[in-house]
From TrEMBL:
The organism of origin for this protein: Lentzea atacamensis
Pathway linked to the protein: Cell wall biogenesis; peptidoglycan biosynthesis
PANTHER family: L,D-TRANSPEPTIDASE, L,D-TRANSPEPTIDASE YCIB-RELATED
Active site, per annotation: H308, C326
Lineage, top ranks: Bacteria, Bacillati, Actinomycetota, Actinomycetes, Pseudonocardiales
Protein name, as recorded: Lipoprotein-anchoring transpeptidase ErfK/SrfK
Amino acid sequence: MKRTLVALVAGLTLLTGCSSVVAGSPNSDTSKPDAKVTLSPADGTKDVQVTSQVQVTVVDGTIESVALKSAEGKDVKGTLTEDKSGWTTAEPLGYGKTYSYSGKAVGANGKPVELKGSFTTVAPGSQTRATLWPGDNQTVGVAAPIMVKFEAPVQDKATVEKALKVTNSANVTGSWAWLNAQEVHYRPEKYWPANTQIKVEAKLYGVNYGGGAFGKADVTSEFTIGRNQVVKIDNPTHQLVVLRDGQQVASYPASFGKDADPELTTPNGTFVVMSKHDTFSFDNPRYGYTNVVKKWAVRFSNHGEFIHENNDNAANIGKNNTSHGCANLLEADAKAYFDSAMVGDPVEVTGSITTLPAQFDWYDWQIPWDQWKSKSAVK
């Protein structure tokens, strides 16, 4: 059992090593030992990591009072052991700050020992912010990757990756993979099981990213994997098939990308639903159209592929592949699919003359599992 204690005057220093202080009183009992106080970090220590636990320990005595204060006079929270032999900080320190100990210990012989000293924490050259997706309380599809993005390149990827933790109710294991120096994703070997609860902890505050950069803040998230829904597109069939829990629940006539043009076909690959839009303006000046607004648009690739309504192409839907890579549906079918779709759903495309290279965002499932694991910085 511990209790929080913050008390008294300023003054006491912590080191990356430790320091000891012994003091006396004229009314002491010389038959008993002096208190031996150890401060860690020790007095005068510089460049202390902000995640370091500051500790005051006493042998042959007890702590009567102890405080750790910043230069601005703010107390650092800490806990005192029940036997009053130790005190430990209960919150992280700030970057580039000087902290001072103060307080008193009393030896078994009654002699007081003043706690006094100071130390300084590391001052980063820069602090790098990270963002995490999915966010708290979201429900996403079974192919949703976990994404941590950094506002600046990370040099020490292994150290950063070790600060990332994923736990889930299905006990499914996965792997982190660095897609570039500013983005690392996590996924399992196969799709997430439906209804899995997932918790992500990115304990990045105080982490040394290398090159003088440190983590600015921790980020965490708890979210849910929804029902298992998979879209299958086999280009020659002119049908968009929806499977739920492995059973077909819908098959919609469709017109996919042009079969004979590698630039315009709907490419092979396993993609992920990225966003949903009631209406979306399609622009491609290269092919002579701008501001073509379509309804019920579901993006599944940053290469430019969507599933959307295109009643203007009704004559070809279910018969010919005539789009520029998107899956065109009749309006009623597009709305029905749109309503069932969830960000994170997989879209599996086959039967095309083109296979899209793994170079557009959310391409996690286009990379074979062994290759994916090799992209981890922790070996």
